[in-house]
Amino acid sequence: MKTKLIHIFTLFIYMFLSIIFLEIVFKMRVLTLVFDVTLFRVLLFSLTYAVIFMFLLMFFREKTVKRLSFILVLVVSFLYLNQEVYFSFVEGFYSVTIAGDFTVGLSFLSDYLTALQFGHLFYFLPIITLYLLNRYKLIGFNIEYFTLKQPLILLIVGFGLFFISMQTIDEHIEDSGASITYSDMDLYTYMYNSQDALKKFGLLTYTQRDFFSLFKTDPLSESEYEVLLDDYFQNQDKHGYNQYTRSLTNKNLILIMAESFDTFAINEQLTPNLYNLKENSAYFENFYSPLYYRSTADTEFLVQTSLYPDKNVTLSMETYLDNYFPYTLPKMFETRGYSTYSFHNYTDYFYPREQFHTETLGYDAYYGSDALGLLDNPSEGQIIFNHQWQSDLEMMELAIPYFIENDRFFVNMITVSGHFKYAADHEIAQKNVDAVSQYEIDNDIELNTQIFYYLAAQIEFDKAIGYLFQQLEEYDHLDDTVVIIFGDHYAYGVDKEDIWQYDDVKDNYSDMDIHNVPFMIYSSSSQLKGTIDNYMSTIDVLPTISNLFGLQLDYTKVFGRDALASKDDVVRFADMSFISRNFSYDSLSEEYDIINPTILPEYLIMMNNQIIIDYKYNLLVLEYDYFKKDE
After folding, report:
1. What is the CATH number of domain 244-574?
2. Quick check: pTM over 0.85?
3. Rounded Cα distance, 465 and 488, in Å
4. Where are the domains of the chain?
5. DSSP 99
6. How confident is the model over 492-504, as pLDDT tens digits?
């Protein structure tokens, strides 16, 4: 009996210390470690989970307990490790729904392995410790219940610890003048900000809340939600005319979302076409492309619908395929008599673009790499470990004949040549290594390996742009066609430290400014020239284009803003941080930076709450297919 009690006690202490150790390591490496009430709360929750683990393990015999203990610790350790690696790619945290996209995840196995660092070994210290404790017989697994009261006692202790943990969550709401405000208890209940939830409750609690959110029930009926949304949209600001309104009416548009197109990809020697375009276009120096849950696909969703993607689903583009979206770019251009086309030089392996672009967004035709004769779509369920990125120049050569002789056209293009990883085996980069090597010689520099191959890959995109403008001029479409180019996200395949060291545009060590990427509008209009310092992001692209082309958009029914209507637009990030010319808020440090002294702190607190409210209503629009009543 005494031996069994010692085994129970030592295994419990080991489980608790392992969990709190992993939480602290995760905070230190990914978030921030502060010795405050949040750390005490995480400690209490960790005690609760240790009790729950013991409650379950004690139903089994010694050999089974031993095996399950090793499996449990290994699974929990990988949970922490995987969240850090995922964060290193997209600066966000995955949900259990995203983890279900197993095939796509496996295709990036090699990138996952190369992302591993020496510091990640800390996550395996608990399993190594358990192995050593077992080998030297310093821990035992003979913990099977020996009385009927024991499970009940553990349940009572577990519920008691959980109750105490919950009491540390603040329900107080700071009065900021906002009509609706949110407390820490609301964050625990609704999990509207994964980063805040991880910081305040710990990773295991975040995972627990995330898992149980799959079984949530709706407190209101669909018709009641519709009334709420009607009221919300009726209270949105109306769009007014400005000096740019309808300035591009009746012109053609080619909208290019360029893979990993970052500010340092514009180089006078290496990418002269992009450099000259920037010099002769309207260049938005404060354009941001925030990373959301599925990077490129979610940027696409933001740009084409002016709605935020849903972090609670595997892929918004796929989940909401059957939704009705009245205000998409192709649908609005179609009502003006335009032919609409979409092109992409990769397959539907990652995203169901062919169906999404034609059936959901409303393009007349979509041409992926298989339709263009570049690369066949893989068979269903096939796992691809070596992705063959295609040439942007080849896509341009193949795509232009489809639309260039039309009178009025709106063309959407998504490039892929600039996709990571940036190394010697990048097929497209290899075509242009000589040019980058010569650049090193001419400037007497030695580029970082990732920077070197990144620039080599972007040269292919530059060639595509040069060919496009050559064809527009040849077919006499240069004066009547607008070309908009922007990056789908920053070059996250390059280490941030290397970007900050090499790029002379971004603010060093700013995790918000890292998302600043190029956005330029080329047109013959004299109104749109030079540098524009208005703040805008991907969700603002659709309403900004609508204003310029005079499209029939109900501006109150989208979540973006016309970036040219006001200099006070706010860029919102997935982690609920935000930035504008007058202020910024970093949700990780919870610090406000007020640039304009006339802005009061209470206003920023109200802004913070409004962002949460907007995102929640955005989700309701998607979940309940709000616009289907207008179809």
Report:
1. 3.40.720.10
2. yes
3. 16
4. 2-168, 172-217+578-631, 244-574
5. G
6. 999 999 999 999 9
